[in-house]
Amino acid sequence: MSATAHAPTLAGDASRFYLREEHHPQNGTLLGFWLYLMSDCLIFAVLFAMYGVVGSNYAAGPAPKDLFDLELVALNTAMLLFSSITYGFAMLEMARNRVRPTLIWLAITGLFGLAFLGIELYEFHHLIHEGAGPQRSAFLSAFFTLVGTHGLHVSFGIVWLVVLMAQVKKHGLTGANRRRLSCLSLFWHFLDVIWIGVFTYVYLMGVLR
């Protein structure tokens, strides 16, 4: 009799151990994403170091000043920097809780990113057509690896951007979507910083060397 009487109480006590709402540690996502960015920094540090070691090995082939079009690269750099500015506008609209302007600025950011990739692919196609492919020399192997890795990151960033736009359009600026947009913002600006290093060290110093 007593066991039967206490059964509902025990069941009620047990239910206290289960959380029905979403459990997400405060700032856990951003911390994990910062750790990921640090690992990406190591990858690009290795690629920059590799380029520094073999970037002058032309194997009697063309040098940077024979290949690089600084005006085209400057235009490409502007595309990526503009995309960073427009993403900043998207984050400002997100802070104001305005869904439609946020999506518009994200779309503009994606268009600038696509323009950057298009110019980079044109450059790669032109170099390969001129016989300056990655197999031509150690310099070109390092160049295509470093710049191509950055381009792949931008490609993944655009895919991520499109997915987030779909999520925001469907669910609005929820807490989860705000965290995701903040993480993508960190990633996008990180790619800008890396590209500034590529433009300065690979293109500009290569032509002036």
From TrEMBL:
GO cellular component: plasma membrane
Keyword Oxidoreductase assigned: yes
Record localization: Cell membrane
UniProt keyword Metal-binding present: no
PROSITE patterns for this protein: COX3
Keyword annotations from UniProtKB, A to Z: Cell membrane, Electron transport, Membrane, Oxidoreductase, Transmembrane, Transmembrane helix, Transport
InterPro entries attached to this UniProt entry: Cyt_c/ubiquinol_Oxase_su3, Cyt_c_oxidase-like_su3, Cyt_c_oxidase_su3-like_sf, Cyt_c_oxidase_su3_a-hlx, Cyt_c_ubiqinol_oxidase_su3, Ubiquinol_oxase_su3_dom
One GO term (biological process): aerobic electron transport chain
Entry's transmembrane regions: 30-52, 72-90, 102-119, 139-165, 186-204
GO MF: cytochrome bo3 ubiquinol oxidase activity; cytochrome-c oxidase activity
Heme-copper oxidase subunit III family profile domain segment(s): 26-207
Membrane topology: Multi-pass membrane protein
NCBIfam families tied to this protein: CyoC (TIGR02842)
Subunit structure: Heterooctamer of two A chains, two B chains, two C chains and two D chains.
The family this protein is said to belong to: Belongs to the cytochrome c oxidase subunit 3 family.
Summary of the function given for this chain in its UniProt record: Cytochrome bo(3) ubiquinol terminal oxidase is the component of the aerobic respiratory chain of E.coli that predominates when cells are grown at high aeration. Has proton pump activity across the membrane in addition to electron transfer, pumping 2 protons/electron.
The protein, known as: Cytochrome bo(3) ubiquinol oxidase subunit 3
Gene designation: cyoC
